[in-house]
Amino acid sequence: MPRPLRVTIWNEFIHELEHESVRRLYPDGMHAVLAGAIQRQLGDAVQIRVVTLDQPEHGLTYEVLAETDVLTWWGHAAHDRVEEEIVTRVQHRVWEGMGLVALHSAHNSKIFKRLMGTTCMLRWREAAERERVWIVDPSHPIVEGIADEYFEIEQSEMYGEHFDIPPPDELFAISWFEGGEVFRSGCTWRRGKGKIVYFSPGHETFPIYHNPSVQRIIANAVHWAAPSGGLYLGQGRNISKPLSPIAAEHVMDESLHRSK
Amino acid sequence: MPRPLRVTIWNEFIHELEHESVRRLYPDGMHAVLAGAIQRQLGDAVQIRVVTLDQPEHGLTYEVLAETDVLTWWGHAAHDRVEEEIVTRVQHRVWEGMGLVALHSAHNSKIFKRLMGTTCMLRWREAAERERVWIVDPSHPIVEGIADEYFEIEQSEMYGEHFDIPPPDELFAISWFEGGEVFRSGCTWRRGKGKIVYFSPGHETFPIYHNPSVQRIIANAVHWAAPSGGLYLGQGRNISKPLSPIAAEHVMDESLHRSK
Amino acid sequence: MPRPLRVTIWNEFIHELEHESVRRLYPDGMHAVLAGAIQRQLGDAVQIRVVTLDQPEHGLTYEVLAETDVLTWWGHAAHDRVEEEIVTRVQHRVWEGMGLVALHSAHNSKIFKRLMGTTCMLRWREAAERERVWIVDPSHPIVEGIADEYFEIEQSEMYGEHFDIPPPDELFAISWFEGGEVFRSGCTWRRGKGKIVYFSPGHETFPIYHNPSVQRIIANAVHWAAPSGGLYLGQGRNISKPLSPIAAEHVMDESLHRSK
Amino acid sequence: MPRPLRVTIWNEFIHELEHESVRRLYPDGMHAVLAGAIQRQLGDAVQIRVVTLDQPEHGLTYEVLAETDVLTWWGHAAHDRVEEEIVTRVQHRVWEGMGLVALHSAHNSKIFKRLMGTTCMLRWREAAERERVWIVDPSHPIVEGIADEYFEIEQSEMYGEHFDIPPPDELFAISWFEGGEVFRSGCTWRRGKGKIVYFSPGHETFPIYHNPSVQRIIANAVHWAAPSGGLYLGQGRNISKPLSPIAAEHVMDESLHRSK
Fold first, then answer.
1. Over 80: is that where the pLDDT of A154 sits?
2. What pLDDT, on a 0 to 100 scale, did the predictor assign at position A258?
3. Which of A119, B132, C46, D182 lies deepest, with the highest CB count within 10 Å?
4. Between the CA atoms of C92, C98, C99 and C100, what dihedral angle is there, to the nearest 10 degrees?
């Protein structure tokens, strides 16, 4: 039997403590609802840990990260409070193969923006409007189990285009908003050996993380982002001995390459 | 008549001053050869400026960048000496639409790595081996004028896979190396409104920037990376008034969004 | 001065003859409005020809195709009447480098489906609803001149997801529809040496081809799809003499390769 | 326990019967070696069936296809003998979700070319030269288990660029050839709900299908191409009743849409 997938759920965990409106929907924190959803969907195949911003090193010690196969990220009010050093640490783990599932307002998190190389900015409006999530890649494993061409979220925050991201490697969902916008709401990218998913539906004052379709997609995304085996190749490799014969004779001037 | 394309050639300009072997090939600096090649190919349609690392602000003042449509970048020995603040400034200009053509060892420059979000590391060997550059997207404007399926570089530095970059939006060239490696040597990406090209052939102690096919591709790349018009959308936009009517009545709790 | 781009506008030209409602909007045929729009935008840089279904060989003789750099296609009621042989002929010209701009109901044309390899089916509804076309790649040359994040079409036919196309190489527009759907309304692909654009806004009983933003995008698409120079490589090439030395001595058994 | 993945191995099965040189390497047919490799790698998770060209309907009856989750295809000498009707049938099954793994000379098969929409032509040479397969997407599930940056095939047929395919959705391998060419040897695409893999290493007179790395990748490819659940959306859907309210009142003129 293969080892369970080790999932770490990172939650900023501020709104739930400070706002009654959020606490009502997520009395044990959004992380609890996410953990439950992933556990129900993936069962024994996962082993879940929860960490939050206010823990030492934001809960993301070298040890925790070394034991994490897939990290989910929810942050909103305190992106700036995440230490650069921790962001660098997480980015290195993604390069080594750790999956990252960035949720909703994590579009503006330091780690997501570092991996994308863009501003990741967007239009937004909180008006409790209807969102209809259309599946545009019905064969993608991340949408497995969504039975129809779309699903609905009755009250949602609008995130709209232009969304300033690199063109996604795969686009699996586009959202329609009652107030008039569209949004690439389900995207994947690869960075180093790590697989990255961004999925926008989700909010602190709307009960979106209780929606079964949203839960299914997040669990699927965690499963999809699982690391593959193989080498990590994130260092320069000077291969002075060629694999096949080279006709020329050449002595490299090392002084030109010192800093490489 | 349209305004000429304003091209800024950034050169580290260290090897040419310090190494006789480099000076012999590029007596006026690699920037001079690149400038000549771009000028010959694009004629009156471009206006070229050259800047180097040792100038104040590395030659990349706000004013210079504001007047730059496409920036070419060559650095090797002193990537670390480029100030973070200048890198951030260049990155913002790319987001706004400035094209970036990263040449050869610029794969390891701070600006390229910031925009890619990966390590951009690779295998390498300097053994004066043959490189054969195969065109894999013959309809791409960047390879316009390359008359055959490939062109050759008699003595080259090997750059080989795995090259740790995001999957390119477009792949126009793959190189074969005598010693046994392959390399995605011609790639494009978009970041914000800026178009980015990476083209690996080029070196300080081999006369690669004198090769007519290499020159043609670099000039084409500069032309391709020219900015389009239109809006810069790199800020979050709170659109409280919807474009189409929304049924729900909802008052946003501003305290939840303060830091957005 | 470079040769003008030779554009051929193919129109089914049935609705305009048979339906008063269409004739009122397009008294000289949709092709006339398209030709005027492209001419106004690109001026002397283009030379336009119009051909229609009912001409011999549907107007697409070998000679006409040989003199066509970019072909635009509008068909709806009579896709089945386009001869397979002519479709094959057009497909070969695309492979050789001719650009193809498929408009609106041309999603269901034989030529488009042949090049895509999929059904190209979609949801649709004709209810005169509002369409809002969002630009999702603001740096793409095809959206040059669109000044805002979106533009509107007051009365449109809905085309909605899932749109059964190969994932586009580039996605430049996504449409929002009043009735609740989204659609990847602006896409590009490459096939052989040919560049292909699909742009959905446009209709026979709504005056969409009179919309300035629609006209601008179609003209830009024609310009973008212009062929590049270079080789056509659509035949197998048996290269018995290697470019670099091969150690093994081997005699190929020709009888195994006869049909290649 | 989930149902095993139903794999059908299609083999032209001509060379093995007609050529002693091929029979020596593949005494029971190439299909037997492929079946063994997939079975060993995936174990109880697969259930394998073998069919060949000379069977009625080429072994690809409606019933067999209905019971096939992933189809592997090897053909070379007799592509032309595959009936168009059967090709159409297979293409429809791919659209519905059946995976297709096209091997080596299947680049020139009717089914592969139909799905690609291009000529799929390439350079080639049979000279028993060395091929080195470089992994360019080390996180892709299809290269799971390949322990190094590359693997070698001592004697191979060269397939080289330009390979006239649509830009692959994912590129996981690039081959280096001793005689001087490169080739995109491992590619994936999606068409309809079906996942498609092309993997070039493999040959009738070289023992390439006995190579453990080649076997591993083919087995992984079969696993990766497994269908997901969900709707098949390959028909036009006229949605006359909108999901959200539309302000306009409009009566569609049915006569304009009859053929849709």
1. yes
2. 62
3. D182
4. -40
C169 reaches B (C-beta below 8 A):
yes
CB C180, CB C141: distance < 8 Å: no
The verdict on a CB contact (< 8 Å) between A242 and B160 is no
Pairing verdict, β B170-177 and B182-191: antiparallel
pLDDT over 90 percentage in chain B: 87
Phi-psi sector, C176: left (phi>0), alpha (psi -120 to 50), beta: beta
Query: Distance, in angstroms, between C54 CA and closest chain B CA?
Result: 32
* Pairing, β C194-199 against β C5-11: unpaired
DSSP letter for B181, please: -
Flag the least confident range among B200-214, C246-260, D138-152: C246-260
Share the mean pLDDT of chain B.
94
SS3 A109: coil
- The DSSP-derived string for B113-155 is HHHH-S----EEEEEEEEEEEEES-TT-GGGTT--SSEEEEEE
Q: Round to whole Å and give the CA distance between B114 and A250.
A: 34
Q: Are strands A170-177 and A182-191 parallel, antiparallel or unpaired?
A: antiparallel
Q: What are phi and psi of D185, to 5 degrees?
A: -90, -10
Residues 6+ apart with CB under 8 A from D217: D142, D143, D146, D173, D186, D199
pLDDT tens digit sequence for C76-85: 999 999 999 9
- Residues facing C4 on adjacent strands: none
CA dist A241 to A246, B161, C199, D121, D130, Å? 10, 16, 52, 35, 18
Termini Cα distance of chain D: 43
Separation of first and last alpha carbons in chain A: 44
Assembly ipTM? 0.94
Q: What is the reported pLDDT for C255?
A: 83
**DSSP class of B87:** H
Give the pair of three-digit tokens for residue B75. Answer: 């650095």
The beta-carbon neighbor of A139 closest among D137, D190, D244 is D190
Contact A77, A15 (CB under 8 A): yes
Residue A259 vs residue A176, higher pLDDT: A176
Secondary-structure percent of chain C, ordered helix, strand, coil, rounded to 5: 35, 30, 40
How far, CA to CA in Å, does D183 sit from each of B214, B231, C209, D103, D222? Answer: 21, 40, 44, 14, 21
Residue linked to tokens 């680049």: D107
Best of C133, C139, C171, C191 to mutate (most B CBs within 10 Å, chain B) = C139
- The answer to whether residue D154 scores a pLDDT higher than 50 is yes
| Torsion over CA: B158, B162, B168, B170 (sign) | positive
- What letter does residue C70 receive in the DSSP assignment? E
- Indicate the pLDDT class of residue B158, thresholds 50, 70 and 90: very high
List the single residue in C with minimal CA-CA distance to B169: C169
Q: Can you give the pLDDT at residue C1?
A: 57
Q: Which residue of C has its CA nearest to D15?
A: C256
Q: How confident is the model at residue A1 (pLDDT cuts 50, 70, 90)?
A: low
Between β-strands A123-135 and A170-177, what pairing exists: parallel, antiparallel or unpaired? antiparallel
pLDDT digits (tens, 9 = 90+) for C184-231: 999 999 999 999 999 999 998 899 999 999 999 999 999 999 998 767
pLDDT of A257 over the 80 cut? no
- Cβ–Cβ below 8 Å for A178 and B242: yes
pLDDT at C2: 75
Across the interface, whether the CB atoms of D138 and A194 are under 8 A apart is answered no
For B86-138, how does the pLDDT look when each residue is reduced to its tens digit (9 = 90+)?
999 999 999 999 999 999 999 999 999 999 999 999 999 999 999 999 999 99
In residues, how long is chain A?
260
**Are B34 and B218 contacting, i.e. CB atoms less than 8 angstroms apart?**
yes
Q: Please give the structure tokens belonging to residue A195.
A: 């697989």
Task: Please choose, from the candidates B171, D140, D171, the residue with its C-alpha nearest in 3D space to the C-alpha of residue A224.
Answer: D140
User: Tokens standing for D254?
Assistant: 């049915």
D194/A141 touch (CB, cutoff 8 Å), yes or no: no
